[in-house]
Specification:
single chain, 5-stranded antiparallel beta sheet, 6 helices
């Protein structure tokens, strides 16, 4: 009876395969386990960042609303002295980083002043009609939706009602440059952290 012989090369290959396969499987498990841990770490970091940004935005909105509400109490609006109110708004804008303009409209949407336009010059029409209607309906502050300005720059804003004897007499709006949001990320120190999480996450996961 003839016995089949196994060449030394085949024998070594089988031995190598038996040795390397468990190591490869273990290495693959380590990579997957590490990737899962990194993904959870990244997701947790992003959630923390989102909470910090929301808190910073809330503070920014509350500050803007408070400043506009102070302007809304001005007696200059009761007497219709829009020129002096324009000057008052200019001083207020100087104290609010990110504010691009302050706009005053009556309930019909007719504009009375816009700090982007010299006083007495023709004024642009109302933008952000949904938030404007919301202020008239609720008599409460509302966020002006993101709009594109005449120079192609994106802005958002805050609107507050000017209420007299229970009725909305005017709507006062502050336009805020969308780029001002980057200042908030600096305030909560998230920019570098996000970049590190994203880049590290892409390296690990992909």
């Amino acid at each position: 009876m003839r016995h089949k012989t196994i060449s030394l090369r085949v024998y070594l290959f089988i031995l190598l395969l038996c040795t390397v396969t468990p190591i490869a499987i273990f290495a693959a498990w380590l990579v997957l386990h590490f990737a899962k841990g990194e993904r959870q770490s990244i997701e947790s970091g992003i959630r923390d960042t989102n909470r910090a940004l929301i808190t910073a935005l809330d503070r920014e909105f509350e500050s803007s609303i408070a400043a506009l509400n102070v302007l809304a109490t001005s007696k200059l609006l009761d007497t219709g002295n829009y020129r002096q109110f324009y000057a008052l708004c200019e001083r207020a804008r100087a104290t609010q980083p990110g504010w691009k303009s302050i706009i005053l409209n009556d309930p019909s949407g007719k504009p009375f002043l816009n700090l982007l336009v010299p006083f007495g010059k023709p004024l642009p029409p109302l933008v952000g009609k949904e938030s404007f209607k919301k202020v008239l309906r609720t008599k409460k502050a509302a966020i002006l939706e993101l709009v594109k300005g005449p120079k192609g720059r994106w802005t958002f804003g805050i609107r507050v009602p000017v209420v007299r004897r229970g009725e909305v007499k005017y709507v006062l709006s502050a336009l805020i440059a969308a780029s001002a949001a980057s200042r908030l990320t600096d305030d909560v120190s998230v920019t570098a952290r996000l970049r590190r999480w994203v880049m590290h996450g892409l390296t690990v996961l992909f």
